[in-house]
Amino acid sequence: MWTDGDSTDEITVRDPAAPEDPIVAFSGASETQAEEAVSAAAAASDNWAATTPDDRDTILYEVAERIDANRDALAETLTREEGKPISSGRGEVSRAAEIFRFFASYARSATGETIPSSDPETLTYTVREPLGVVTLITPWNFPIATPSWKLATALATGNTVVLKPSSETPMIAKQLVELLAEVGVPNGVVNLVVGSGSTVGDALTTDERVDGVSFTGSTETGQHIAETVATRGIPIQTEMGGKNPQVVLPDADLEAAADAAISGAFGGCGQACTATSRLIVHEDVADELTAAVVERAEALSIGPGLDDPDIGPAVSAGENETNLEYIEVAEKEGATLQTGGGQPATPEAGYFVEPTVFTDVEPGMRIAQEEVFGPVLGVIEVADFDEAVRVANDVNYGLSASIFTTNMAKSRSFTKQIEAGVVKINGTTTGSHVQMPFGGMKASSSETQKELGQHAYEFYTHEKAIYRSDP
Ligand code: NAD
Protein backbone atom coordinates (compact mmCIF):
# COMPACT_ATOMS: atom_id res chain seq x y z
CA MET A 1 0.00 0.00 0.00
CA TRP A 2 1.39 3.38 -0.99
CA THR A 3 0.73 6.51 1.05
CA ASP A 4 1.52 10.08 0.01
CA GLY A 5 4.10 11.86 2.11
CA ASP A 6 2.61 14.33 4.56
CA SER A 7 5.64 16.38 5.62
CA THR A 8 6.41 19.87 4.38
CA ASP A 9 9.65 18.61 2.73
CA GLU A 10 9.45 18.72 -1.04
CA ILE A 11 11.34 15.93 -2.80
CA THR A 12 12.14 16.92 -6.36
CA VAL A 13 13.59 14.32 -8.68
CA ARG A 14 15.54 15.72 -11.63
CA ASP A 15 17.42 14.31 -14.57
CA PRO A 16 20.90 15.70 -13.82
CA ALA A 17 21.54 15.95 -17.56
CA ALA A 18 18.42 18.12 -18.03
CA PRO A 19 17.58 19.51 -14.62
CA GLU A 20 15.33 22.42 -15.65
CA ASP A 21 12.17 20.29 -15.78
CA PRO A 22 11.75 18.08 -12.72
CA ILE A 23 10.73 14.50 -13.47
CA VAL A 24 8.50 14.46 -10.41
CA ALA A 25 8.01 16.42 -7.19
CA PHE A 26 6.15 15.26 -4.10
CA SER A 27 6.04 15.65 -0.33
CA GLY A 28 8.47 13.53 1.63
CA ALA A 29 7.44 11.29 4.50
CA SER A 30 6.94 12.79 7.95
CA GLU A 31 8.36 11.52 11.23
CA THR A 32 4.97 9.99 12.06
CA GLN A 33 4.94 8.11 8.76
CA ALA A 34 8.45 6.81 9.48
CA GLU A 35 7.15 5.50 12.81
CA GLU A 36 4.24 3.84 10.99
CA ALA A 37 6.71 2.09 8.69
CA VAL A 38 8.55 0.74 11.73
CA SER A 39 5.21 -0.39 13.19
CA ALA A 40 4.40 -2.28 9.99
CA ALA A 41 7.82 -3.96 9.98
CA ALA A 42 7.44 -4.90 13.66
CA ALA A 43 3.97 -6.36 13.06
CA ALA A 44 5.22 -8.52 10.17
CA SER A 45 8.38 -9.64 11.94
CA ASP A 46 7.28 -12.90 13.63
CA ASN A 47 5.49 -14.28 10.59
CA TRP A 48 8.39 -13.55 8.23
CA ALA A 49 10.91 -15.05 10.65
CA ALA A 50 8.72 -18.17 10.77
CA THR A 51 8.75 -18.73 7.00
CA THR A 52 10.90 -21.64 5.92
CA PRO A 53 14.36 -21.01 4.49
CA ASP A 54 13.16 -22.71 1.32
CA ASP A 55 10.33 -20.19 0.94
CA ARG A 56 12.61 -17.20 1.48
CA ASP A 57 15.21 -18.58 -0.92
CA THR A 58 12.55 -19.18 -3.58
CA ILE A 59 10.98 -15.76 -3.27
CA LEU A 60 14.30 -13.88 -3.34
CA TYR A 61 15.47 -15.92 -6.30
CA GLU A 62 12.27 -14.89 -8.06
CA VAL A 63 13.13 -11.24 -7.31
CA ALA A 64 16.37 -11.77 -9.21
CA GLU A 65 14.51 -13.20 -12.18
CA ARG A 66 12.12 -10.23 -12.23
CA ILE A 67 14.97 -7.74 -12.03
CA ASP A 68 16.61 -9.39 -15.02
CA ALA A 69 13.33 -9.44 -16.93
CA ASN A 70 12.83 -5.71 -16.28
CA ARG A 71 16.46 -4.74 -16.75
CA ASP A 72 16.04 -2.11 -19.44
CA ALA A 73 13.15 -0.29 -17.78
CA LEU A 74 14.90 -0.28 -14.41
CA ALA A 75 18.14 0.94 -16.00
CA GLU A 76 16.34 3.79 -17.71
CA THR A 77 14.81 4.95 -14.45
CA LEU A 78 18.19 4.69 -12.75
CA THR A 79 19.99 6.68 -15.44
CA ARG A 80 17.29 9.35 -15.63
CA GLU A 81 17.49 10.17 -11.94
CA GLU A 82 21.14 9.38 -11.15
CA GLY A 83 22.75 10.27 -14.46
CA LYS A 84 25.19 7.40 -15.04
CA PRO A 85 25.70 6.11 -18.61
CA ILE A 86 22.90 3.74 -19.57
CA SER A 87 25.29 0.81 -20.13
CA SER A 88 26.51 1.26 -16.53
CA GLY A 89 22.89 1.51 -15.43
CA ARG A 90 22.12 -1.81 -17.13
CA GLY A 91 25.24 -3.30 -15.56
CA GLU A 92 24.13 -2.16 -12.11
CA VAL A 93 20.65 -3.62 -12.58
CA SER A 94 22.14 -6.96 -13.65
CA ARG A 95 24.35 -6.76 -10.60
CA ALA A 96 21.29 -6.30 -8.40
CA ALA A 97 19.85 -9.50 -9.88
CA GLU A 98 23.15 -11.29 -9.22
CA ILE A 99 23.05 -10.03 -5.61
CA PHE A 100 19.53 -11.35 -4.99
CA ARG A 101 20.46 -14.67 -6.58
CA PHE A 102 23.60 -15.03 -4.44
CA PHE A 103 22.08 -13.92 -1.13
CA ALA A 104 18.81 -15.82 -1.60
CA SER A 105 20.85 -18.91 -0.79
CA TYR A 106 21.77 -17.42 2.61
CA ALA A 107 18.27 -18.40 3.68
CA ARG A 108 19.47 -22.01 3.66
CA SER A 109 23.18 -21.58 4.25
CA ALA A 110 23.52 -18.95 6.99
CA THR A 111 24.41 -21.59 9.52
CA GLY A 112 25.58 -21.95 13.05
CA GLU A 113 28.25 -24.46 14.02
CA THR A 114 28.46 -27.67 15.94
CA ILE A 115 31.40 -27.33 18.31
CA PRO A 116 33.25 -30.13 20.17
CA SER A 117 31.86 -30.23 23.69
CA SER A 118 33.97 -30.37 26.87
CA ASP A 119 31.25 -32.58 28.37
CA PRO A 120 30.51 -35.88 26.57
CA GLU A 121 26.85 -35.71 27.74
CA THR A 122 26.29 -32.26 26.29
CA LEU A 123 25.84 -31.28 22.66
CA THR A 124 27.18 -27.77 21.98
CA TYR A 125 26.23 -25.78 18.92
CA THR A 126 25.30 -22.31 17.79
CA VAL A 127 22.22 -21.06 15.98
CA ARG A 128 21.64 -17.87 14.02
CA GLU A 129 18.38 -15.97 14.53
CA PRO A 130 17.13 -12.83 12.77
CA LEU A 131 17.58 -9.50 14.56
CA GLY A 132 13.94 -8.55 13.95
CA VAL A 133 13.38 -5.13 12.34
CA VAL A 134 16.31 -3.52 10.55
CA THR A 135 16.56 -0.05 9.07
CA LEU A 136 18.49 0.23 5.82
CA ILE A 137 19.70 3.68 4.75
CA THR A 138 21.28 4.06 1.33
CA PRO A 139 22.97 6.70 -0.86
CA TRP A 140 22.25 7.66 -4.46
CA ASN A 141 25.38 6.54 -6.27
CA PHE A 142 24.50 2.83 -6.66
CA PRO A 143 20.78 3.28 -6.14
CA ILE A 144 19.70 -0.29 -6.92
CA ALA A 145 22.82 -2.31 -6.06
CA THR A 146 23.28 -0.98 -2.52
CA PRO A 147 19.63 -1.35 -1.42
CA SER A 148 19.67 -4.81 -3.02
CA TRP A 149 22.60 -6.17 -1.07
CA LYS A 150 21.20 -4.92 2.21
CA LEU A 151 17.64 -6.07 1.43
CA ALA A 152 18.59 -9.49 0.13
CA THR A 153 20.81 -10.27 3.11
CA ALA A 154 18.32 -8.96 5.68
CA LEU A 155 15.34 -10.74 4.13
CA ALA A 156 17.10 -14.05 3.52
CA THR A 157 18.01 -14.21 7.20
CA GLY A 158 14.40 -13.58 8.28
CA ASN A 159 14.36 -9.88 9.14
CA THR A 160 11.73 -7.34 8.16
CA VAL A 161 13.01 -4.00 6.94
CA VAL A 162 12.43 -0.30 6.59
CA LEU A 163 14.36 1.03 3.59
CA LYS A 164 15.20 4.71 3.32
CA PRO A 165 16.82 5.49 -0.03
CA SER A 166 18.42 8.79 -0.97
CA SER A 167 15.99 11.55 -1.90
CA GLU A 168 17.99 11.99 -5.14
CA THR A 169 17.04 8.51 -6.36
CA PRO A 170 13.69 7.41 -4.91
CA MET A 171 12.14 6.19 -8.18
CA ILE A 172 14.42 3.22 -8.68
CA ALA A 173 13.96 2.25 -5.02
CA LYS A 174 10.18 2.38 -5.46
CA GLN A 175 10.36 0.17 -8.56
CA LEU A 176 12.50 -2.33 -6.70
CA VAL A 177 10.09 -2.48 -3.76
CA GLU A 178 7.11 -2.83 -6.11
CA LEU A 179 8.83 -5.75 -7.72
CA LEU A 180 9.36 -7.39 -4.32
CA ALA A 181 5.63 -7.06 -3.65
CA GLU A 182 4.80 -8.53 -7.08
CA VAL A 183 6.71 -11.72 -6.36
CA GLY A 184 4.85 -12.18 -3.10
CA VAL A 185 6.92 -10.61 -0.32
CA PRO A 186 4.12 -10.17 2.26
CA ASN A 187 2.81 -6.79 3.41
CA GLY A 188 4.88 -5.15 6.10
CA VAL A 189 8.05 -7.16 5.38
CA VAL A 190 9.60 -4.39 3.26
CA ASN A 191 8.63 -0.78 3.98
CA LEU A 192 9.91 2.09 1.89
CA VAL A 193 10.22 5.55 3.42
CA VAL A 194 11.08 8.34 0.99
CA GLY A 195 11.92 11.37 3.02
CA SER A 196 14.53 13.85 4.05
CA GLY A 197 17.21 12.33 6.28
CA SER A 198 16.88 15.16 8.78
CA THR A 199 13.10 14.60 9.10
CA VAL A 200 12.83 10.80 9.19
CA GLY A 201 16.41 9.70 9.99
CA ASP A 202 16.24 9.72 13.79
CA ALA A 203 12.77 8.12 13.82
CA LEU A 204 14.09 5.25 11.70
CA THR A 205 17.24 4.67 13.72
CA THR A 206 16.41 5.46 17.35
CA ASP A 207 12.97 3.79 17.55
CA GLU A 208 13.13 1.07 20.21
CA ARG A 209 11.47 -1.42 17.88
CA VAL A 210 14.41 -1.16 15.45
CA ASP A 211 16.87 -3.98 16.15
CA GLY A 212 19.67 -3.07 13.73
CA VAL A 213 20.77 -0.31 11.37
CA SER A 214 22.77 -0.73 8.19
CA PHE A 215 23.89 2.56 6.66
CA THR A 216 25.87 3.45 3.55
CA GLY A 217 26.67 7.09 2.80
CA SER A 218 28.90 9.94 3.86
CA THR A 219 31.15 9.74 6.90
CA GLU A 220 29.39 12.75 8.44
CA THR A 221 25.93 11.13 8.35
CA GLY A 222 27.31 7.73 9.35
CA GLN A 223 28.98 9.20 12.42
CA HIS A 224 25.78 11.02 13.37
CA ILE A 225 23.80 7.78 13.16
CA ALA A 226 26.45 5.83 15.08
CA GLU A 227 26.36 8.43 17.87
CA THR A 228 22.57 8.62 18.14
CA VAL A 229 22.10 4.86 18.11
CA ALA A 230 25.13 3.91 20.23
CA THR A 231 23.37 3.99 23.60
CA ARG A 232 20.83 1.40 22.44
CA GLY A 233 23.51 -1.22 21.94
CA ILE A 234 21.98 -2.64 18.75
CA PRO A 235 24.12 -3.72 15.78
CA ILE A 236 25.04 -0.77 13.54
CA GLN A 237 26.90 -1.05 10.29
CA THR A 238 28.18 2.17 8.71
CA GLU A 239 29.96 2.08 5.35
CA MET A 240 31.17 5.56 4.46
CA GLY A 241 33.54 7.67 2.38
CA GLY A 242 36.94 7.02 0.83
CA LYS A 243 40.09 8.75 -0.45
CA ASN A 244 41.41 5.84 -2.41
CA PRO A 245 45.00 5.66 -3.65
CA GLN A 246 46.42 3.93 -6.70
CA VAL A 247 50.15 3.45 -6.21
CA VAL A 248 52.31 3.00 -9.31
CA LEU A 249 55.91 1.72 -9.02
CA PRO A 250 58.51 2.19 -11.79
CA ASP A 251 58.40 -1.48 -12.85
CA ALA A 252 54.65 -1.37 -13.51
CA ASP A 253 52.86 -1.83 -16.82
CA LEU A 254 52.18 1.88 -17.30
CA GLU A 255 49.54 1.43 -19.99
CA ALA A 256 47.51 -0.82 -17.69
CA ALA A 257 48.09 1.60 -14.80
CA ALA A 258 46.81 4.53 -16.90
CA ASP A 259 43.72 2.58 -17.99
CA ALA A 260 42.96 1.68 -14.38
CA ALA A 261 43.42 5.25 -13.17
CA ILE A 262 41.00 6.51 -15.82
CA SER A 263 38.38 3.91 -15.02
CA GLY A 264 38.86 4.30 -11.25
CA ALA A 265 38.86 8.11 -11.20
CA PHE A 266 36.33 8.98 -13.88
CA GLY A 267 34.00 5.96 -14.20
CA GLY A 268 30.59 6.92 -12.80
CA CYS A 269 31.77 10.56 -12.87
CA GLY A 270 34.02 9.78 -9.89
CA GLN A 271 30.96 9.14 -7.74
CA ALA A 272 32.00 5.82 -6.25
CA CYS A 273 33.07 5.38 -2.64
CA THR A 274 35.97 3.36 -4.06
CA ALA A 275 36.85 5.92 -6.79
CA THR A 276 40.57 6.55 -7.31
CA SER A 277 41.28 10.07 -6.14
CA ARG A 278 45.04 9.91 -5.52
CA LEU A 279 47.53 8.60 -8.07
CA ILE A 280 50.69 8.05 -6.02
CA VAL A 281 53.47 7.60 -8.55
CA HIS A 282 57.18 6.91 -8.37
CA GLU A 283 59.02 10.01 -9.61
CA ASP A 284 60.87 8.04 -12.33
CA VAL A 285 57.64 7.31 -14.19
CA ALA A 286 55.45 10.23 -13.08
CA ASP A 287 55.75 12.28 -16.29
CA GLU A 288 55.14 9.33 -18.59
CA LEU A 289 52.16 8.08 -16.59
CA THR A 290 50.65 11.55 -16.23
CA ALA A 291 50.89 12.09 -20.00
CA ALA A 292 49.14 8.77 -20.63
CA VAL A 293 46.38 9.59 -18.12
CA VAL A 294 45.84 13.10 -19.49
CA GLU A 295 45.66 11.81 -23.07
CA ARG A 296 43.02 9.26 -22.08
CA ALA A 297 41.07 11.75 -19.97
CA GLU A 298 40.85 14.17 -22.88
CA ALA A 299 39.49 11.43 -25.13
CA LEU A 300 36.53 10.66 -22.82
CA SER A 301 33.10 11.66 -24.08
CA ILE A 302 30.80 13.61 -21.76
CA GLY A 303 27.05 13.73 -22.13
CA PRO A 304 23.60 12.70 -20.90
CA GLY A 305 23.56 9.19 -19.49
CA LEU A 306 20.87 8.05 -21.93
CA ASP A 307 23.30 8.77 -24.83
CA ASP A 308 25.74 6.34 -23.18
CA PRO A 309 28.83 8.56 -23.02
CA ASP A 310 31.98 7.69 -21.08
CA ILE A 311 31.05 10.20 -18.37
CA GLY A 312 27.57 11.35 -17.34
CA PRO A 313 26.69 14.31 -15.13
CA ALA A 314 27.14 14.72 -11.39
CA VAL A 315 23.95 13.71 -9.62
CA SER A 316 22.92 17.17 -8.42
CA ALA A 317 23.66 20.87 -8.54
CA GLY A 318 25.14 20.58 -5.05
CA GLU A 319 27.55 17.79 -6.03
CA ASN A 320 28.60 19.69 -9.13
CA GLU A 321 29.27 22.86 -7.14
CA THR A 322 31.36 20.84 -4.70
CA ASN A 323 33.41 19.45 -7.60
CA LEU A 324 34.05 22.94 -8.97
CA GLU A 325 34.87 24.28 -5.50
CA TYR A 326 37.46 21.55 -4.94
CA ILE A 327 39.04 22.36 -8.31
CA GLU A 328 39.37 25.98 -7.19
CA VAL A 329 40.79 24.96 -3.82
CA ALA A 330 43.40 22.72 -5.49
CA GLU A 331 44.53 25.56 -7.75
CA LYS A 332 44.74 27.96 -4.80
CA GLU A 333 46.77 25.43 -2.82
CA GLY A 334 49.34 25.28 -5.65
CA ALA A 335 48.44 22.11 -7.55
CA THR A 336 48.97 22.30 -11.32
CA LEU A 337 45.95 21.72 -13.54
CA GLN A 338 46.87 19.32 -16.35
CA THR A 339 43.47 18.88 -17.94
CA GLY A 340 39.81 19.58 -17.26
CA GLY A 341 39.06 22.00 -14.47
CA GLY A 342 35.58 23.22 -15.33
CA GLN A 343 32.26 22.65 -16.99
CA PRO A 344 32.56 21.48 -20.59
CA ALA A 345 31.29 23.79 -23.38
CA THR A 346 28.81 21.08 -24.34
CA PRO A 347 26.38 19.86 -23.21
CA GLU A 348 25.25 23.32 -22.13
CA ALA A 349 22.60 22.22 -19.63
CA GLY A 350 23.17 19.68 -16.89
CA TYR A 351 25.58 19.16 -14.02
CA PHE A 352 28.63 18.33 -16.09
CA VAL A 353 32.25 18.71 -15.13
CA GLU A 354 35.30 17.73 -17.15
CA PRO A 355 37.53 14.88 -16.03
CA THR A 356 40.22 16.78 -14.17
CA VAL A 357 43.85 15.89 -13.43
CA PHE A 358 46.13 17.82 -11.09
CA THR A 359 49.86 17.30 -10.63
CA ASP A 360 52.17 18.81 -7.97
CA VAL A 361 49.70 17.64 -5.37
CA GLU A 362 51.18 17.50 -1.87
CA PRO A 363 49.89 14.89 0.60
CA GLY A 364 48.63 17.52 3.05
CA MET A 365 46.53 19.48 0.54
CA ARG A 366 42.76 19.34 0.93
CA ILE A 367 42.50 17.81 -2.54
CA ALA A 368 44.67 14.95 -1.23
CA GLN A 369 42.85 14.54 2.08
CA GLU A 370 39.13 15.16 1.57
CA GLU A 371 36.65 13.10 -0.41
CA VAL A 372 35.61 15.09 -3.52
CA PHE A 373 33.20 12.50 -4.92
CA GLY A 374 33.65 13.79 -8.47
CA PRO A 375 35.96 13.28 -11.48
CA VAL A 376 39.04 14.88 -9.95
CA LEU A 377 42.36 13.03 -9.75
CA GLY A 378 45.46 14.28 -7.92
CA VAL A 379 48.91 12.99 -8.90
CA ILE A 380 51.35 12.79 -5.98
CA GLU A 381 55.01 12.00 -6.73
CA VAL A 382 57.03 9.89 -4.32
CA ALA A 383 60.68 8.80 -4.19
CA ASP A 384 60.23 5.14 -3.22
CA PHE A 385 57.87 2.36 -2.11
CA ASP A 386 58.04 3.27 1.59
CA GLU A 387 57.05 6.85 0.90
CA ALA A 388 54.23 5.65 -1.35
CA VAL A 389 52.77 3.52 1.46
CA ARG A 390 53.24 6.31 4.00
CA VAL A 391 51.40 8.80 1.77
CA ALA A 392 48.70 6.28 0.88
CA ASN A 393 47.98 5.71 4.59
CA ASP A 394 48.21 9.37 5.58
CA VAL A 395 44.45 10.08 5.33
CA ASN A 396 41.50 9.50 7.64
CA TYR A 397 39.88 7.08 5.23
CA GLY A 398 40.71 3.44 4.52
CA LEU A 399 38.27 1.98 2.02
CA SER A 400 40.05 0.76 -1.12
CA ALA A 401 43.63 0.88 -2.44
CA SER A 402 45.57 -0.48 -5.36
CA ILE A 403 49.18 -0.96 -6.42
CA PHE A 404 50.62 -1.43 -9.90
CA THR A 405 53.90 -3.32 -9.89
CA THR A 406 55.47 -6.48 -11.29
CA ASN A 407 57.44 -6.99 -8.09
CA MET A 408 55.78 -9.78 -6.08
CA ALA A 409 57.55 -8.92 -2.84
CA LYS A 410 56.48 -5.28 -3.05
CA SER A 411 52.87 -6.16 -3.79
CA ARG A 412 52.81 -8.61 -0.89
CA SER A 413 54.31 -6.01 1.40
CA PHE A 414 51.70 -3.49 0.18
CA THR A 415 48.81 -5.80 1.10
CA LYS A 416 50.26 -6.07 4.61
CA GLN A 417 50.98 -2.39 5.20
CA ILE A 418 48.11 -0.63 3.48
CA GLU A 419 45.26 0.59 5.67
CA ALA A 420 42.30 -0.31 3.45
CA GLY A 421 39.47 -2.83 3.54
CA VAL A 422 39.75 -3.66 -0.18
CA VAL A 423 43.19 -4.07 -1.76
CA LYS A 424 43.88 -4.63 -5.47
CA ILE A 425 47.14 -5.70 -7.06
CA ASN A 426 47.32 -4.45 -10.65
CA GLY A 427 43.64 -3.52 -10.67
CA THR A 428 41.39 -0.48 -10.21
CA THR A 429 40.33 0.68 -6.77
CA THR A 430 36.72 0.36 -7.92
CA GLY A 431 34.67 -2.79 -8.42
CA SER A 432 34.09 -5.79 -6.20
CA HIS A 433 32.71 -9.32 -6.41
CA VAL A 434 29.51 -10.21 -4.56
CA GLN A 435 31.17 -13.25 -3.02
CA MET A 436 34.00 -11.12 -1.56
CA PRO A 437 33.52 -9.11 1.65
CA PHE A 438 33.23 -5.37 1.11
CA GLY A 439 33.95 -2.56 3.59
CA GLY A 440 36.65 -0.27 4.86
CA MET A 441 38.83 0.68 7.78
CA LYS A 442 39.36 3.91 9.75
CA ALA A 443 36.78 6.65 8.95
CA SER A 444 35.45 4.60 6.02
CA SER A 445 33.68 1.98 8.10
CA SER A 446 32.42 1.00 11.52
CA GLU A 447 34.33 -2.25 10.93
CA THR A 448 31.52 -4.45 12.14
CA GLN A 449 30.77 -7.49 9.99
CA LYS A 450 31.43 -6.49 6.38
CA GLU A 451 28.79 -6.39 3.66
CA LEU A 452 28.70 -8.89 0.77
CA GLY A 453 30.79 -12.04 0.79
CA GLN A 454 30.38 -15.34 2.60
CA HIS A 455 29.58 -13.95 6.05
CA ALA A 456 27.47 -10.81 5.55
CA TYR A 457 24.56 -12.65 7.25
CA GLU A 458 26.40 -12.37 10.56
CA PHE A 459 25.47 -8.69 10.87
CA TYR A 460 21.78 -9.47 10.42
CA THR A 461 21.62 -12.32 12.93
CA HIS A 462 22.05 -12.99 16.63
CA GLU A 463 24.31 -15.91 17.44
CA LYS A 464 23.15 -18.12 20.30
CA ALA A 465 25.39 -20.75 21.92
CA ILE A 466 23.31 -23.81 22.90
CA TYR A 467 24.35 -26.43 25.48
CA ARG A 468 22.01 -29.41 25.18
CA SER A 469 22.04 -32.16 27.77
CA ASP A 470 19.18 -34.55 27.27
CA PRO A 471 17.40 -35.86 30.40
P1 NAD B 1 24.61 11.02 2.62
O1 NAD B 1 25.30 10.67 3.88
O2 NAD B 1 24.30 12.44 2.38
O3 NAD B 1 23.21 10.26 2.53
C1 NAD B 1 23.14 8.85 2.65
C2 NAD B 1 21.75 8.48 3.16
O4 NAD B 1 21.62 8.96 4.51
C3 NAD B 1 20.62 9.14 2.37
O5 NAD B 1 19.54 8.23 2.26
C4 NAD B 1 20.24 10.30 3.25
O6 NAD B 1 18.93 10.78 3.06
C5 NAD B 1 20.41 9.68 4.63
N1 NAD B 1 20.51 10.64 5.74
C6 NAD B 1 20.94 11.93 5.70
N2 NAD B 1 20.87 12.46 6.95
C7 NAD B 1 20.42 11.47 7.78
C8 NAD B 1 20.15 11.39 9.18
N3 NAD B 1 20.34 12.43 9.98
N4 NAD B 1 19.70 10.22 9.69
C9 NAD B 1 19.51 9.15 8.88
N5 NAD B 1 19.74 9.17 7.55
C10 NAD B 1 20.19 10.31 7.00
O7 NAD B 1 25.46 10.40 1.43
P2 NAD B 1 25.19 10.52 -0.15
O8 NAD B 1 25.55 11.89 -0.59
O9 NAD B 1 23.85 9.99 -0.47
O10 NAD B 1 26.25 9.47 -0.74
C11 NAD B 1 27.57 9.77 -0.99
C12 NAD B 1 28.46 9.25 0.12
O11 NAD B 1 28.25 7.86 0.30
C13 NAD B 1 29.95 9.40 -0.19
O12 NAD B 1 30.61 9.86 0.95
C14 NAD B 1 30.39 7.98 -0.52
O13 NAD B 1 31.75 7.72 -0.30
C15 NAD B 1 29.51 7.19 0.39
N6 NAD B 1 29.37 5.81 -0.07
C16 NAD B 1 30.00 4.83 0.63
C17 NAD B 1 29.92 3.50 0.21
C18 NAD B 1 30.60 2.40 0.98
O14 NAD B 1 30.22 1.25 0.81
N7 NAD B 1 31.59 2.70 1.79
C19 NAD B 1 29.20 3.20 -0.96
C20 NAD B 1 28.58 4.23 -1.65
C21 NAD B 1 28.66 5.54 -1.20
Automatic annotation (TrEMBL):
It comes from the Archaea. InterPro entries: Ald_DH/histidinol_DH, Ald_DH_C, Ald_DH_N, Aldehyde_DH_dom. The keyword Oxidoreductase applies. Residues 2-466 form the Aldehyde dehydrogenase domain. Keywords: Oxidoreductase. Homotetramer. This is Aldehyde Dehydrogenase.
